[in-house]
Amino acid sequence: MNVIITRPRYRTHLITPPLGMAYVASHLKKNNLAVELIDALKDNIANAELAERCAAADIVGIFCMSDYFWEVRDLAAKLKAAGKTVVIGGPHATVMPQETLKDTLADYCVVGEGEQTMLELVLALRNKKDPVNIPGVYSRSTVKFVPRDFFVDLDVLAFPAWEDIDPRTYPPAPHGAVVRAFPVAPVTTSRGCPFSCHFCASPKIWNRQIRFRSAKNVADEIQMLVKEYGVKEIHFEDDNLTLKKEHIQGICEEILRRKIKVYWATPNGIRVDSVDEELLKLMKKSGCYSVAFGIESGSQEILDHIEKGTDIARICAAVKLASKAGLITQAFIIFGLPKESKATIKETLKLVLSLPLHKAQFLLLDILPGSALWDSLRQQGPEYFRKRSYQEPGYVPEGLTADYLIKARSEAFRRFHLRPKQAGTLLRMLKLRQIKFVFQRVMDFSIFGRLGKKG
Ligand code: SF4
Questions:
Q1: Minimal CA–CA distance to 410: which of 455, 364, 454, 367?
Q2: Strand order in the sheet with 359-364
Q3: Do residues 193 and 240 touch, judged by C-beta distance below 8 A?
Q4: How far is the CA of 29 from the centre of ligand 1 (A)?
Q5: Would you state the pLDDT for residue 25?
Q6: Ligand 1 centre distance from Cα of residue 7 (Å)
Q7: Which residues does the chain have with pLDDT short of 70?
């Protein structure tokens, strides 16, 4: 059985090693199955060519996030036409397996953590057994879906198949736009998050459970990446890296104890209520240079409504402490959340302009499949992801217009970044070879007007 794991090319300014695919690949390899990983996004391969590259495969596993669902659908159709068994996994298939099978020609969805499910599915197909009762597998003949239990101990997993996603081969289009040093490797130290922010799909994907790798296991991986792949910067991509203080403290201490020389950052965002002065100082000491905070809004009413579980006072305190610790600070802001109005947008902008922040990412709300907002608002948005993720409104709150949100976001970017300290931070960090990707980002986010309009 030849297995290929892949993701299609899609339009994005973010091209980073795909950990989810590489975790599945390494688990199959560990169990003596031959598997090839093709990252068509990195290698800029169109679907027609990608389908040809899969000619020798019996089974093709496609990783699917909602923002490139339509490219996955097209690829699945091409692969089915070529007689392949097609399996779709990843967040989109996890939260909407039925719809994914209905909307594509794929044979199976892998729901939840993919490693063991994909292994058992491949083995069943190899042995010509019906995989219908394998936990985590969703097929057209599924009558009663059996969910797969999460791994209790994440340390049992092999490291991602780094040999297939060598960080040195990735373009300078990292999470967070600018970084201190290349090559950059993403690492996750945990899976899941116990919170239930309404715009986020994590609660449904991970059932609000969180599990942690040990500090030793994480440090082993970082040390290997530095030694064998020349990695100079780590991006922790956890949903909630700093939830448990002993966890992140342990990782910092292990990095320091082993004297690993590496920069690190949290471009996926951390919560403002999960840091204190002592922790931020330790993070800085161990190589952290930049933290992004999931602030979302400057309106307490909106924060409460989306069940963010934070407040303005904590936002201010966390940003100030991080800045005092000598870290670059970034805010994630979402415009267009329920209860958004012209007044709340002003309130949010006033807050971020008043804080010692170096960077801010102003996003337009995506109604993510799997999120609580998906259940309540999906009818009001465009057909899912017939729009550019975070760049066009997925829903427009009462009293606003899509055009207003787009203009407000562009203006917020300009007002925030065209200040000496903020512009200086970006310019100092920007590397010449990144210009193309940063320009694309400026276009995508319509920073200077509607340059990035689709089509
Ligand atoms: S936004 Fe962050 S804190 Fe909220 S549920 Fe998602 S991962 Fe958890």
A1: 364
A2: 184-187, 233-236, 263-270, 288-296, 328-335, 359-364
A3: yes
A4: 32
A5: 98
A6: 25
A7: 379-386, 445-455
- Kindly state the greatest CA–CA separation across the chain: 65
**Domain ranges (residues) in the chain:** 3-139, 166-452
Distance in angstroms (rounded) separating the CA atoms of residues 269 and 319: 12
Question: Residue 382's pLDDT is what?
Answer: 55
Cα gap 101→124, rounded to integer Å: 20
CATH superfamily of 166-452: tm_1862 like domain (3.80.30.20)
Per-residue pLDDT tens digits for 20-66: 999 999 999 999 999 999 999 999 999 999 999 999 999 999 999 99
141-148 long-range contacts, CB within 8 A, separation 24+: 145/97, 145/111, 147/111, 147/112, 148/111, 148/112, 148/113, 148/116, 148/117
- What SS3 string covers 147-192? CCCCCCCHHHCCCCCHHHCCHHHCCCCCCCCCCCCCCEEEECCEEC
Q: What is the pTM of this model?
A: 0.94
Q: What is the pLDDT of residues 229-240, one digit of tens each?
A: 999 999 999 999
- Which of 95, 202, 291, 334 has the most ligand 1 atoms within 8 A of CB, as the residue to mutate? 202
CATH 3.40.50.280 applies to domain 3-139: yes
Quote the CA–CA distance of 193 and 173 in Å, as a whole number: 27
